[in-house]
């Protein structure tokens, strides 16, 4: 690749901030605090499996603008518990009301995240984030971790009520960064939202196969399984 890149944009969740790990740790603690296993004979693993599938589906619909932020907040836990036969409103409200604040108490980053941010910044790249995450949650995840030391601008699709891969989200991020698309790279773990969205904007995309599923390959742009591989690209 001809090194014309000046700006590197990252997705946040499961690209820099380890959403899956932090969510699971937080939910297990909340699950135990409410003594759900003792009260309802439900194992955490069964709860988490159902929650994870439902949450992924809701976020997929959110990216397609088929559900709202409130739909995610109101249904991901309540519907999971109802499916498991738990209709205790106190339990549902506890998870609905406190998860977003509690999850940022566990701020594990994806492996090599800080190392690669430091490396790229030292190389002279301007680093940015464009996320579909909610504004407040996105800001908390950045400010409570070393990510804040490396990122110049942060953009959330919620600012304009749009979601990646919508071009408006990328345009807003580029505008904030005062960056040109052809001088920018976008790195993320979602093929449609991050890679196709970035490519359609004229950015240089890099797909981060966070789950190591090996579902996607491309001759047009790199596919990596660990963030440290970015040192071979930039």
Short characterization:
It is built from 10 helices and 6 strands.
Descriptive report:
- The chain is 46% helix and 11% strand.
- The protein has 234 residues and is an alpha/beta fold.
- The longest helix has 20 residues, at 44-63.
- The chain is elongated and about 60 Å long.
- The model has no long low-confidence stretch (mean pLDDT 95).
Continuous helix count: 10
The SSE order reads: EHHHHHHHEHEHEHEE
Mean pLDDT: 95
Overall, the morphology is elongated
Sheet of most strands:
6 strands, parallel
User: SS-based structural class?
Assistant: alpha/beta
Cα-atom radius of gyration: 18 Å
Give descriptors for this structure:
alpha/beta
């Amino acid at each position: 690749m001809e090194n014309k890149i000046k700006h590197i944009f990252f997705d946040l969740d499961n690209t820099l901030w380890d959403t899956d790990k932090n969510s699971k740790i937080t939910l297990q603690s909340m699950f135990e605090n409410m003594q759900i296993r003792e009260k309802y004979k439900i194992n955490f693993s069964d709860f988490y499996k159902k929650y994870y599938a439902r949450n992924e589906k809701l976020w997929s619909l959110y990216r397609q603008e088929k559900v709202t932020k409130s739909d995610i907040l109101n249904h991901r836990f309540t519907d999971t518990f109802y499916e498991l036969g738990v209709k205790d409103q106190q339990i549902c409200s506890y998870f609905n009301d406190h998860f977003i604040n509690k999850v940022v108490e566990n701020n594990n980053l994806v492996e090599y995240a800080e190392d690669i941010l430091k490396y790229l910044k030292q190389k002279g790249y301007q680093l940015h984030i464009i996320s579909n995450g909610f504004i407040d949650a996105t800001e908390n995840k950045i400010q409570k971790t070393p990510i804040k030391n490396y990122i110049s601008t942060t953009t959330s699709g919620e600012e304009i009520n749009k979601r990646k891969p919508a071009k408006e989200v990328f345009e807003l991020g580029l505008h904030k960064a005062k960056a040109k698309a052809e001088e920018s790279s976008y790195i993320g773990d979602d093929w449609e939202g991050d890679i196709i969205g970035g490519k359609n904007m004229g950015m240089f995309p890099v797909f981060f196969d966070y789950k190591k599923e090996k579902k996607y390959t491309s001759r047009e742009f790199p596919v990596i399984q660990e963030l440290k591989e970015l040192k071979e690209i930039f």
